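thread: overnight batch results

M.L. [08:02]
morning all. the overnight job finished for the chain we discussed friday. pasting input first so we're all looking at the same thing
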Amino acid sequence: MNIGVQSFPELYTMLMGWHLYDQLWTLLSQTGIAFLPFIGIILRNIKQPYESQETKDAASTSLRRMEMDIIGTLLIIFLGVSPFIPLKPSTVSYSPVCQVKGQNNTYHPGDTNTTWDIAFTQPTEAYVPLWWMAVMSISEGFASSANTMVACVPDLRKMVTEVNMSQLTDPTLKQEMKQFELNCYIPARTAYLEDAEKNSSSLQNINQDREKYGTEDTEWIGSHGFQDTYYQNLHAQQPVQGFPYNPSEDINADTNKSNPPAYGTPSCSDWWNDPQNGLKNKLYTALPKDFGDEFKDFFKDDSTGALKDDVIKRIALNEGYQKANNTVGDDGYSNVTTAVGSWFTQLSTYPKLYAAAQSAPIIQALLLLMIYTFLPFALVFSGYKPATFITGAAIIFSMIFWSFIWHLVSYVDSALMNALYGDRWFAKQSPSATMADMITGTLILVAPLFWFSFMGAMGVAVGDLVMKAVGGMSGVGDGAAQAGTGLAKKAATIALSAAAPVAGTAGKAVMTAAMSKSSSSNPENPLRFA
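M.L. [08:03]
and the structure it wrote out:
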């Protein structure tokens, strides 16, 4: 029997939990603790009849009840407590709901190619009781089917978090960014501030770009306004790797004629925009390798390149390369305040939400591990009551179903981000975006707890109904005996009336005396003779 789980850690925690279940059940059986409920069955079935019946009737009732309870309990132990169905690592699998288009990967313990293969030792075969195997199979299958009913959308929370937390690790790239800032951005911004004071006509293109890309376009190294103006006339002061040497752009061309440099000094515009060696492309490719594949559908409609600019701007901000905002300009100080406030807000909000979403399946898997491990104690100390099995099934089902709730929350989160973030994903965030973050953070924690409480309450109610049904079945024998007594009494009366004319007065007296004697010795059963 194959079972599909909901996360990588659950591949291991399921096997580990049932392996511990086997060990603890063996321990309870060998120490005799597992048989304590039978003592309770015997004492209960002796005590209750003797409190309400005569000795001989009580003995018969006790024996009948003990037979039914012991047989029922043994059947329950066989089906729901004793582990005998094998659960092998090869039969446990995980298939992510949302995979890269064209992929349909299924993972098993030991071959997930994740750090979970290292964290857990290779699991061994475990054994599961029939009832709990059915509960797990139905619960996992139901949750997996429900997950497929929710559309797969780009995980925008993951996208924003990865960008906001990205840090450059290549020292060469860091040095190139610093060089670009010194050779291109700072001279261009200085010229821009001077032209702004003079109200120069050369600001027309810059103002148009500010209207198109936002007033803060001049506040970062990839400014479109600077690309259209100053960057075309500014050049790198040192050779930049990847750009060919051009003697016409080298003021020392005569000196370097016999030994030309390996690389050239491109214009700042080429240095930034070159599709292969440009700084813009290098910064974008500094993101995780799977970033482009996972979110390419989200960026395919970015005709203006604004989203890609926001990604690069955030990476530059993470490295501290917007220090020119400290310069007094049109709204330099206000941009500094807004940028710093937004940066700190995002730095505390995004990682928390993303960490909560990423840790949720791990918490779920560990809680299921605890349930499977402690289940033998709950079954034994509850006296193998059917209500315990119903309640336990409801708890396991509701906890496995958490995966669907989080998948639904992820879908809602992406919808909220699309609706409330506007068009500035990685720069300044609006109050609407903050509201989306608050809603998502609340749903991640509250939604599964609400579902669990609801299902837990329903499980207890169903368990009580089952207990009442079982209790009614155990009292069928007593009810039948009482009904039989009434019918027998009526039959005796009819027989007495029919026999009186035939037997005469003497026969009637004998039968009356016999019935009186029987009634005085056992008033509950007038036809029972000594």
